[in-house]
Amino acid sequence: MKKIDKILADHGFRKERIIQILNDIQRIHGYLPRTVLEHVSRRVKMPMSAIYSIATFYSAFSLVP
Q1: Nearest 5°: CA angle at 27, between 43 and 24?
Q2: Closest Cα partner for 3 from 19, 24, 23?
Q3: pLDDT 10s digits, 2-57
Q4: DSSP characters for 1-63?
Q5: Confidence (pLDDT) at 1
Q6: Considering Cα of 9, then 10, then 16, then 19, what sign does the dihedral take?
Q7: CB pairs under 8 A, 24+ apart, for 59-65?
Q8: Is pLDDT above 90 for 62?
């Protein structure tokens, strides 16, 4: 999770930057793995349900490889 923590640090661990964070994560993995989303949820102190809602709302994001 070092790469993910770097992304989060680059965005200041700010939940206001969640779309940019998710975009950066997807660039690395090609999709948004659930375990990574759970980690992001804890680190930015944002409910997993809110992150999942954003990830499923925008068609640019994928939850499957």
Answers
A1: 35
A2: 24
A3: 999 999 999 999 999 999 999 999 999 999 999 999 999 999 999 999 999 999 99
A4: -HHHHHHHHHTTT-GGGHHHHHHHHHHHHSS--HHHHHHHHHHHT--HHHHHHHHHHSTT--S
A5: 87
A6: negative
A7: 60/23, 60/26, 61/22, 61/23, 61/26, 61/32, 62/26, 62/30, 62/31, 62/32, 63/31, 63/32, 63/34, 64/31, 65/29, 65/30, 65/31
A8: yes
Residue 63 is which amino acid?
Answer: L
Token pair, residue 34, equals 């659930």
Query: Residues, the chain, total?
Result: 65
Structure tokens given for 9 = 């640090």
